Amino acid sequence: MKILIMAGGRGTRLWPLSRTEKPKQFQKLISDKTMLQETADRLLPLGSWKDFYISTSSYYVKEVQRELPNVPKENIIDEPVNREQASSIALSCAFFIKRYPNEIAIALPADHMIKKDKVLIAAIKNAAAFLEKNPDYILTIGIKPDAVDTSLGYIKKGKKFTGTGSGTIFKAEKFIEKPDLETAQELIKNGDYFWSSGIYIFKPKNLIERYKKFVPDTYQRILKFINAVDTPEYGEVLEKEYPGSDPVPFAYSIVENDNKVLMIPADLGWSDIGSWAVLKDSLVKHNNRNFVKAAHLDIGSKDLLVYGSPKKLIATVGLKGLIIVDTPDVILICDKSQSQDVKKIVAMLEKTNGEKHL
Fold it and tell me: Which fold has domain 2-272?
């Protein structure tokens, strides 16, 4: 199995810690390891370091090499421009098809938190065993929701397809992307809807046929990439073709349109850490408790996330439900219930030429 970790995002909702220079996948948010390192370590039971591929922006290649020195340099796939996930997976498939035409691959984000590593590995192995006999399917992992969340995609569990117990595989019947609050509440009550984990298991040479059907322009570029991989012409072909790839999400362009997508439900202790509030609630389940990663003194505050440096004391008195993030050049203070709007601050900075704070 080949393991593709996608590490090219910006993580704007975790600003000001997640910045252009060092976005959230390269930050030590939950342990003494970065999110990228956490993701790679949990997948090691699936193969050796030579089986790992990292898809990232050209800007972050050196950071990836520094954090994951055991991953071969030729397995770091740099994207000259950001063209969304469908294009990054397409480019990666070119490497897999050229080097390992019959292998199964898994693609997943670098910046998600997963507490139950063994459950994840078991689900992936289950999917891989199925694909060996049924290579024309795409499998994804669905997460049973434990809260109403409007920032995630949802998958409706269809009829049982195969398997038993925790290894049961279901038809993915319907996809709903980032519903409004009322709709999300109804989906949770329904009981058949799962969060989309963004984890996909597939056979690359079969997957590209979906591009031929749903993203034909990018498919033509995949064929050129396959021919160019591991040749002196690769760099020239990449610079010419990749910027023209369709800038569309993989879920929206491929997964939601295909009729051979299956879902494995799994309780992974999963979070996409899509905002400061999500990070806080993922790490501290009791809402009244504070999560602190800083030098901190407090009197009577509840439900805070305080993130800063051990060299600067942050003192709080009588506060409730706030996010406080202190970095060397920015201090963020926001209501926890509005932490999704942090990305709007980033958008404002982009419009007002505030590059030094991006």
Answer: Spore Coat Polysaccharide Biosynthesis Protein SpsA; Chain A (3.90.550)
